[in-house]
Amino acid sequence: MILVTGATGGLGHQVIDSLLTTTPAADIAALVRDVNKATDLRERGVDVRPADYLDYSALVQAFQGIDKVLLVSAVAFTDRVLQHRNVIDAAREAGVKHLFCTSIQRSSNFVLTEVTESDLATEAYLKASGLVYTILKNGYYWEGLAYLIGSEVPHTEIRFPAGEGKIAFVRRSELAAATAALLTSEGHENQEYTLCGSEAYSFHDIARELSALAGRSITYQDIASEAYKEQKIAAGYPEIVANFFAQWGAATRHGMLAGTDPTVERWLGRKPASLREYLKTTYFPGS
Ligand SMILES: NC(=O)c1ccc[n+]([C@@H]2O[C@H](COP(=O)([O-])OP(=O)(O)OC[C@H]3O[C@@H](n4cnc5c(N)ncnc54)[C@H](OP(=O)(O)O)[C@@H]3O)[C@@H](O)[C@H]2O)c1
């Protein structure tokens, strides 16, 4: 039986959606911290099990009879390492055979505050745990682009502190489909995969494509991190969040998300969403 954590969140839920296309619901379990948010999963026959990453004994209970666990990483600005260690220890105690764990893509050695340090600590802990592991270094979601540049088509320019850096964006649903395929196939013992797009795009590329779709000139301005933070704060974001978005700009500038990899494409059996496809369906729906 496969258990997916974070099953009420975007990625975990979409992994279960994908698993249900190939695997009987009776062989799928969902770890959730609020069962009221998982009614649809229960209605589809998924075994919904309650536990918080911070509740060790509930985790051990939830992992009974499970062969494989997908640990969907905890959210930033929480004690991610403690939560991930709890999941790893509880899985081992409950006799889980194989733990898959999500992490962030690392195509350079840039350390992203609140994310990379805890990912590195988790990966080291998992490797030393004695569990069979698979580490999934996930690329930046296309769905996260709106956090960086806004959810409306910019009037004349994109202002972001990423230099000439590129991102191998990937749709979260495509990441989920590839993850489900890995969970249900053989041969991933103690392997690490980068799950990202097959092409990487700069913010100049994004501006060019938006210009073509909008029929007017939209350019990309590489601005200083401080100016970007001020812009985000003025738009209503708390300073801590504005800082975090600016960090993604620095990560992009330093190539952390730039490497492309064929793994998602291989498991999807087609090319992941391109820049034009994503921008057209998201920023120009119905056009
Ligand atoms: N690669 C990227 O671009 C990117 C972007 C954003 C995040 N991430 C990382 O990838 C993870 C999955 O992304 P996502 O889009 O699915 O995030 P999401 O929609 O925020 O989902 C996070 C899931 O984790 C669950 N969770 C959080 N804290 C928990 C705890 N203490 N105990 C048990 N469950 C807990 C949440 O439960 P509730 O529903 O109860 O809140 C939710 O189901 C994120 O958590 C983050 O680490 C990656």
* C-alpha termini separation: 43 Å
Morphology call: globular
- Assign a percent range to the helix content: 40-55%
Task: Provide the low-confidence segments as ranges.
Answer: none
Can you tag this structure with a few keywords?
alpha/beta, Rossmann fold, two-stranded parallel sheet, 11 strands, globular, binds NADP nicotinamide-adenine-dinucleotide phosphate
Q: Summarize this, please?
A:
The chain is an alpha/beta fold and 287 residues long. The protein is built from 12 helices and 11 strands.
Explain how this protein is built:
The protein is of the alpha/beta class and 287 residues long. It has a domain at 2-137 and 172-195 and 261-265: NAD(P)-binding Rossmann-like Domain (Rossmann fold). The protein contains 12 helices and 11 strands. It has helices spanning 10-19, 39-43, 56-62, 80-94, 116-128, 145-149, 172-183, 203-214, 225-234, 239-253, 263-268, 275-283, and strands at 2-4, 28-32, 47-50, 68-71, 98-104, 132-138, 157-160, 166-167, 191-195, 201-202, 219-222. The strands form 3 sheets. Strands 3-2-1-4-5-6-9 form a 7-stranded parallel sheet, with helices on both faces. Strands 7-11 form a two-stranded parallel ribbon. Strand 4 (68-71), helix 4 and strand 5 form a beta-alpha-beta unit. Helix 8 (203-214) crosses helix 12. It starts with a strand and ends with a helix. The model has no long low-confidence stretch (mean pLDDT 97). The site of NADP nicotinamide-adenine-dinucleotide phosphate has 23 residues, from helix 1 and strand 5.
